[in-house]
């Protein structure tokens, strides 16, 4: 009985390690917006540089996209400290990010927009896959706990 209990604890620890790794994978694969420790300007700079690398932006495009990212990041920072409910904040942040996408699309060429759409779809698929794996791990862990 004692060995079974120790084995079960070890299995739970391994599952927690897997869940932790998956959780950090979700955070890393998410957009750079989740980096709350950096200022809006710092995040805008990183976002713009990443886009520049992926889309081969011109200097004019970099400047315009930086301003878009900075403005949206500042709005999002303001939302985080607002008195809105979590649901209202989530909706407002979603709205701001949709506005960001539309403004950025207006700055990019057709080819760049196609690349951006492809990359966004890949990231979305990756996030969905990670969430699916996390849910599976949680179900398996819960199932083992109930046994």
Structural write-up:
This protein is mainly α and 147 residues long. It has one domain. The chain is 85% helix and 0% strand. It is built from five helices and no strands. The chain has helices spanning 2-29, 40-55, 59-80, 86-107, 110-146. Helix 1 (2-29) packs antiparallel against helix 5, helix 2 runs antiparallel to helix 3 (59-80) and helix 3 runs antiparallel to helix 4. The two termini are 14 Å apart.
Task: Write out key terms for the chains shown.
147 residues, mainly alpha, 5 helices, 85% helix
Secondary structure elements and pairings:
Blueprint: H1 2-29, H2 40-55, H3 59-80, H4 86-107, H5 110-146
Helix pairs in contact: 1-5, 2-3, 3-4
* Dominant shape: elongated
Distance between the termini: 14 Å
What number of domains?
Answer: 1
Written as H for each helix and E for each strand, in order along the chain, the element string is: HHHHH
What share of residues are in beta strands?
Answer: under 5%
Would you tell me the overall average pLDDT? 83
The helix tally amounts to 5
- Counting DSSP E segments of at least 2 residues, the number of strands comes to 0
> Radius of gyration from the CA trace?
20 Å
Amount of helix: over 70%
Q: Which structural class best describes the helix and strand composition?
A: mainly alpha
Low-confidence stretches: none
Sheet having the most strands: none
